[in-house]
Amino acid sequence: MFGSNWGAKKYGVPQGVLRFRNAFWSGVNKTDVKVKNILGDNVPLPIVYGEHDKTVNSAPGTVPFLSVPGHCKAIPGTRKLMFKVACSGHQLQWEEPAAAHLHSLSRKWLKHTAVDGYTTGSFEMDEGGDYTPVP
């Protein structure tokens, strides 16, 4: 495998083979999310992110400053759900048990455009998949 030659050769230190280029930050910003008031109204929006995700949640004062809760708050619509998943990072779709929780949330959302009857709100999900509303 080509990827097996990447990273350090020190036994017992996981290096992984996931590589991605340096990011060019040109994605959605606080101005973009307000365009035509589509997101969160005509297009209901689920957002799921990891508690330790530093790729899309940077420290205040860093450039670029990114904040999932900040972006969610900037979306003017009322049909938006946001879940912060405990003990997970940016690649939560490959992290256990976060991946199972992400798949469960996605299945509910795609089937009902809601999660357990909720169509709006912010929640914190624990390692077991239980979630509580964030005021």
Write the layout of secondary structure elements.
Elements: E1 45-50, H1 68-74, E2 80-85, H2 98-112, E3 121-125, E4 131-133
Parallel strand pairs: 1-2, 2-3
Antiparallel strand pairs: 3-4
Structure characterization notes:
The model has no long low-confidence stretch (mean pLDDT 82). Strand 2, helix 2 and strand 3 form a beta-alpha-beta unit. Strands 1-2-3-4 form a four-stranded mixed beta sheet, with helices on both faces. The longest helix is centred in the last third of the chain and has 15 residues, at 98-112. It contains two helices and four strands; from the N terminus they run E-H-E-H-E-E. The chain has 135 residues and is α/β, with parallel strands linked by helices.
Distance between the termini: 48 Å
Query: Helical content, roughly?
Result: 10-25%
The sequence of SSEs as H and E is EHEHEE
From the helix content, strand content and strand pairing, which structural class follows? Answer: alpha/beta
What Rg is obtained from the alpha carbons, in whole angstroms?
A: 17 Å
Strand order of the largest sheet: 1-2-3-4
What is the number of E strands? 4
Biggest sheet architecture:
4 strands, mixed
Strand content: 5-15%
**Overall pLDDT score:** 82
Can you tell me the residue ranges where pLDDT is under 50 for at least 5 consecutive residues?
A: none
Helical segment count:
2
Subunit arrangement of the protein? single chain
Task: State the shape.
Answer: globular
